[in-house]
Design goal:
Layout: H1 5-29, H2 34-46, E1 80-81, E2 88-89, H3 108-111, H4 113-162, E3 180-184, E4 199-203, H5 209-218, E5 226-230, H6 238-255, E6 260-264, H7 273-291, E7 296-299, E8 306-307, E9 310-311, H8 325-338, H9 346-349, E10 366-367, E11 372-373, E12 376-377, E13 380-381
Length: about 425
Amino acid sequence: MDQDPATITNMSVEIVNDLNNYAKSRMTTLSQENSQISFAERLLAAASPMKRNERTDTNASQITCLESCQRDPQTKGKPITCSLCQNEFHPQCVGLSTNGRKAVWFCYSCRSIPRTLKNLEARYSKQSQEYEALKESNESLKATVHEQSALITSLQEQLAATTTSTNVPNVKPTSAKGSTLIIGDSMIKDINPRGLVSTDVHCMPGAKTLDIKEHLASQPTLPYDTVIVHVGTNDDDVEAAREAMKDTMTDITTKAPNATKVLSTACPRPDSDDNQTRIQNINDMIKETAANTTNCVIVDNDETFYKDGELDSNAYKYRSIHLSKTGTKTLLRNINACHRIIKESASAKKQPRHNTARPRPRHRQTAFHGHYHGGHYGPQPLRKRGCYHCGEQNHQKRDCRFTRPVQCYDCGDYGHKKGMNMCNY
């Protein structure tokens, strides 16, 4: 149904004015978006007074219609023009009557411009909020990084002020007065530093003189007043050991100029005569090196491990070349004779008491109280200790047919035989 031309003109003017005002209000907030600016400019350009399309018949090939247009390109007809984008459409394709013509008409794409602008405005607002949030988070992170950098710088300055030397790996660094380092092969593995005076023990099992030299050379400093080296058991080349020992003494002198150097000779070898001959040559080399080195003391372990002209078997572990507890004590006593490292026991520090009271009578020392013996219950006298190899009481160790302590089949201990009532089995 056709409407009055005056009414259509008024409606078109109102629509154009609304579009003009809407475009002006949105251009201010979306001025940075090129696509939005182009839309707004086109809206302003379309706000000018429009005239009714006076075109007559036009070739169908020049009409820009919908993609779904199925009309014959050779068909001629009078198209309708969009008032905003100036594109031409078939009236039948856009749902208009061919008889009635509108003064102002907008295609489907141009009608969605206000909705598109609103969506863009909402998206722009959301992105602006996210940008502000990221900006605040970035400022907070910058402040945190600045504080942490200042804290790290302060800690580094404090560490540089309090640290005077680099930590020595594998050796506990100490600068205490009178500190001592004992370094050597597995012969010193049973030495307990808890019973020594300001002494660190560094054991290198299977080490030769060259290994000791390389280890000391890898240390940046040697903060010790005395360095004790016990090595030689595993060396098989005397000349190579001689050169390595000289370099070791030179390295110790360079890193600890005021330190006293103590060289401990290798302990005797009970396994074979050839090894004992080799150990004797190594010990001669160690003594010669100590004599040619300034501020160096020698610890001779040759004689102290012999008793009555024979090697003391109790100083070594059973069927082993390593020192037992007795042998370790002997080695420590030899070192302590040249440089005091053993703590003074509490009994030695204690002064004798002068007791004026009448002494109590001493009873006979007994053992196994309350056990049955001799047909009655009562204390049993202590059994006299016999041979330390087999446990029999009719002879001593030097007269025993066994050359080493025998092992009990009941308790597994050494020094007595099965069935002699000397074990706790």
